[in-house]
Design the sequence.
């Protein structure tokens, strides 16, 4: 017998173990079964489950369980990323905390990497066990790691081939530099924050004391009317220390204020170096003074201008952010940290009369997301991939429909990034990662090969003798190895059976913030090496925000721990909540109250199964859903067929929220609230044939519910499948390997549908009217059906006992007219009257409703005032505006209901 309550803490680990032991997560070994494959976005080896992971993996698991039930051979390929910076940081921190005066450099590269591998084996990858708690049905026997032997071989082969094809090269370009870790980092590892800062306005004197007329007053049409004679140009900067590396001053070609001095030179304050004034489209004439300093080696925009005009680039800092000892750096600043130089430069500018003023201003500053230090744009030698060339086929694959984005709107973002793609910096100055397979000879000649032996052979051929080679110290960006993920995890470069069967993979589920960093990389590399795009479909899910719509962050204290939520509500409740709220293109506003609501749904299902079992509902032999003769059973079979069609359609379209919503309504409203109530007289009646049919139908529908709900709520459905299977025919196996419902439209009986739908609407409208007019719950009132045809009157008579019980009526009957004090509503052309005289004080109730409507209308008016205020919409945070819109919608719906109730009284 099913227990009184469902206990997730007991059930979830038991079924997790049972599924995995049974091999249910492995692909079917059936050549006739269609293939369905998802590769998991590899979490960092240092990672732990956060709410974004919970959403991402829930949606993937819904799809793989759905396709598994549809009979496909399903592979959900798991694996982890070695997470270069994050992992190196963890181990370096451990060394520092050990108190043995050991660090990476004192240990040396080989010993340090041994420590990292040891940490990985002992502590890395805890997220996999956390994913198991969520119910993720990956084929864990196929777990991969971006630095395992097979994937490492794939990385080497790809790098060497791209190099020999001229698509990988070394170049000196500007990169994001982290002075703490002393490495280049990707844009994704840069966190831009608004912080209090300054604009320092500085005079750059014209060379040889030249002067020009600068407009200071303008008329109404913007024409200059007053001028002042200047012998300098004013520059505003948020980083005065970088002026030491200025190579030019730029103004816009259309800026008439500076037309007279374009081509002249200024003397760089504190340095005495002459630099030119150039015209370029980059400066904005309406921002600041309209003139900008060009520091090509330390600003990404300046770098482009400097390259375009052949402006010298002066490298100011070393790898730690300290100013270098170079001729162009004044001696007093050499060896100082960049922020110390800033203080000195500002003081010196003020002392020498170059500082015009200091303006307090919020500035956007880049920080390393791991190190927390300010990132420095720096000119360094790095390895690059010719992403522009590789992007061509990746763009074409989406243009021709070989790969599609869901929602489709993300296609535009993809094109925008790919059509403006820059060379991809793939080298990192770390020790943990795939070491770049490049070896240098005595004269610096480079040999790129898959092994040291191959490099030695190439060097011998080049020099005519054996020479000493030195391997490149750098490692590859982690996005390089994860860019091979869809084919390297399937065994490439070996031509494995899995590669043949599952590549291209079916669907990629990921967040929008890594379309460029990961999706684009996989598209480029997959097409280049496999000649096919790596997936047919890219589903981009939304962000999970807090209940108010704010982005979750530790600093705000509004993060939600999925493991804590699973402990409190169970994995099923969390999964169904996330899926039910995963509307395409709309962020999820998550709250514990919502999760609690979906836990209550699980309780409702559990109690329904207990009711069915206690009433001996079971399928003892093959059940034919077209066999029922009872109207209510015909109706529920048809409703089941409609639900199955809707859930299938919505999951195929990746509308997870619509699929979950269809199931929620069918289970809670149709099956539990209506069907189980409707069949109580049959289950308690004397007609044995009707009783048997009803028991079998109720059990069959419950089975279909468990199957359809399984992708969303795997634990409770598997438990109920086992427990309900204790009575009736023996189950063939676990639910996870069951069969998805295939129910045709022929099961929908339009006569039964019309009959039962009429009764549902009658009872529901009667209940709603009672509630809105404050009819006491215990009060039994009559119901009169006016102007109905014979068929409708017959329906009322046929279901009178059910209607009276479920609508809490004294009696229900047909009549010619309604007595005074009745409220009415129209149902399918007939009028339904509820005499309320003596039960409800209708004038007092009308007054109450009018007062409530007035309150709501006033509240709606205030909200409309705010929402109609363009200034408010522009300045208020997005989540505040969205919350106000939702409150307005709720208030409007409430007002409409109250107005309808008032209209009934006044009718």
Sequence:
């Amino acid at each position: 017998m099913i227990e009184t309550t469902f206990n997730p803490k007991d059930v979830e680990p038991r079924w997790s173990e049972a599924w995995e032991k049974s091999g249910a997560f492995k692909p079917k070994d059936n050549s006739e079964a269609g293939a369905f494959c998802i590769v998991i976005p590899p979490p960092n080896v240092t990672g732990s489950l956060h709410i974004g992971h919970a959403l991402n993996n829930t949606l993937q698991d819904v799809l793989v369980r759905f396709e598994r039930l549809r009979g496909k051979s399903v592979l959900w390929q798991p694996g982890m990323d070695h997470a270069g910076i994050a992992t190196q940081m963890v181990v370096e921190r451990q060394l520092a905390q050990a108190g043995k005066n050991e660090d990476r450099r004192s240990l040396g590269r080989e010993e340090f990497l041994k420590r990292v591998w040891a940490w990985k084996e002992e502590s890395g990858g805890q997220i996999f066990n956390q994913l198991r708690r969520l119910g993720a049905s990956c084929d864990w026997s196929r777990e991969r790691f971006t630095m395992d032997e097979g994937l490492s071989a794939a990385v080497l082969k790809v790098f060497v081939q791209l190099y020999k094809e001229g698509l990988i090269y070394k170049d000196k370009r500007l990169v994001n530099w982290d002075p703490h870790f002393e490495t280049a980092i990707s844009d994704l590892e840069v966190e831009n924050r608004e912080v209090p800062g300054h604009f320092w306005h500085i005079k750059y004197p014209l060379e040889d004391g030249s002067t020009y007329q600068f407009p200071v007053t303008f008329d109404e049409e913007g024409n200059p009317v007053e001028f002042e004679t200047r012998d300098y140009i004013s520059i505003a900067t948020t980083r005065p220390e970088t002026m030491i590396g200025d190579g030019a001053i730029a103004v816009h070609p259309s800026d008439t204020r500076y037309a007279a001095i374009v081509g002249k030179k200024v003397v760089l304050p504190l340095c005495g170096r002459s630099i030119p004034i150039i015209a370029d489209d980059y400066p904005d004439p309406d921002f600041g003074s309209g003139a900008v300093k060009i520091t090509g080696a330390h600003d990404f925009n300046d770098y482009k201008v400097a390259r375009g005009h052949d402006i010298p680039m002066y490298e100011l800092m070393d790898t730690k952010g300290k100013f270098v000892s170079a001729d162009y750096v004044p001696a007093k600043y050499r060896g100082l940290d960049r922020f110390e130089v800033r203080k000195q430069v500002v003081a010196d500018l003020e002392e020498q009369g170059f500082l015009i003023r200091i303006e307090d201003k919020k500035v956007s500053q880049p920080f390393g997301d791991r190190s927390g230090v300010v990132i420095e744009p720096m000119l360094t030698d790095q390895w690059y991939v010719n992403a522009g060339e590789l992007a061509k086929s990746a763009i074409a694959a989406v243009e021709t429909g070989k790969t599609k984005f869901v929602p489709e709107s993300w296609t535009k973002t993809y094109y925008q990034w790919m059509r403006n793609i820059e060379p991809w910096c793939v080298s990192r100055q770390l020790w943990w990662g795939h070491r770049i397979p490049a070896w240098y000879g005595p004269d610096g000649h480079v040999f790129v090969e898959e092994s040291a032996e191959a490099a030695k052979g190439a060097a011998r051929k080049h020099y005519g003798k054996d020479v000493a080679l030195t391997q490149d110290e750098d490692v590859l960006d982690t996005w390089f190895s994860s860019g091979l993920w869809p084919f390297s995890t399937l065994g490439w470069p070996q031509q494995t059976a899995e590669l043949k069967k599952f590549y291209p993979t079916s669907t990629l589920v990921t967040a929008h913030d890594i379309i460029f960093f990961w999706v684009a990389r996989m598209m480029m590399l997959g097409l280049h090496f496999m000649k096919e795009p790596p997936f047919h479909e890219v589903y981009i899910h939304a962000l999970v925000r807090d209940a108010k719509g704010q982005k979750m962050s530790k600093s705000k204290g509004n993060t939600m721990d999925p493991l804590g939520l699973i402990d409190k509500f169970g994995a099923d409740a969390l999964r169904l909540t996330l899926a039910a709220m995963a509307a395409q293109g709309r962020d999820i506003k998550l709250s514990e109250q919502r999760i609690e609501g979906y836990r209550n749904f699980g309780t409702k299902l559990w109690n329904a199964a207990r009711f069915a079992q206690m009433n001996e509902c079971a399928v003892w032999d093959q059940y034919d859903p077209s066999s029922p003769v009872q109207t209510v059973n015909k109706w529920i079979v048809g409703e089941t067929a409609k639900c199955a069609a809707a859930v299938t359609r919505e999951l195929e379209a990746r509308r997870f929220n619509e699929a979950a919503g269809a199931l929620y309504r069918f289970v809670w409203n149709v099956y539990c609230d209506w069907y189980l109530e409707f069949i109580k007289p049959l289950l308690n009646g004397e007609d044995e044939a009707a009783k048997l049919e009803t028991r079998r139908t109720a059990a069959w529908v419950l089975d279909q519910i468990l199957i359809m709900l399984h992708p969303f709520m795997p634990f409770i459905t598997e438990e109920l499948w086992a427990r309900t299977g204790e009575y009736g025919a023996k189950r063939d196996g676990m639910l996870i390997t069951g069969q998805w419902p295939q129910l045709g439209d022929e099961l929908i009986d339009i006569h039964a549908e019309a009959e039962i739908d009429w009764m549902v609407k009658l009872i529901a409208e009667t209940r709603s009217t009672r509630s809105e007019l404050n009819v006491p719950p215990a009060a039994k009132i009559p119901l009169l059906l006016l102007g109905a045809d014979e068929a409708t009157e017959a329906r009322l008579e046929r279901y009178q006992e059910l209607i009276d019980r479920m609508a809490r009526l004294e009696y229900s009957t047909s009549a010619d007219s309604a007595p005074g004090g009745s409220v009415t509503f129209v149902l399918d052309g007939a009028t339904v009257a509820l005499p309320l005289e003596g039960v409800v004080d209708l004038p007092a109730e009308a007054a109450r409703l009018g007062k409530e409507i007035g309150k709501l209308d006033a509240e709606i008016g205030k909200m409309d005032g705010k929402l109609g205020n363009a200034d408010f919409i522009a300045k208020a945070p997005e989540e505040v505006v969205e919350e106000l819109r939702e409150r307005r919608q709720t208030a409007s719906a409430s007002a409409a209901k109250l107005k309808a109730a008032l209209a009934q009284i006044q009718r």
Summary: The first strand starts at residue 35 and ends at 39.
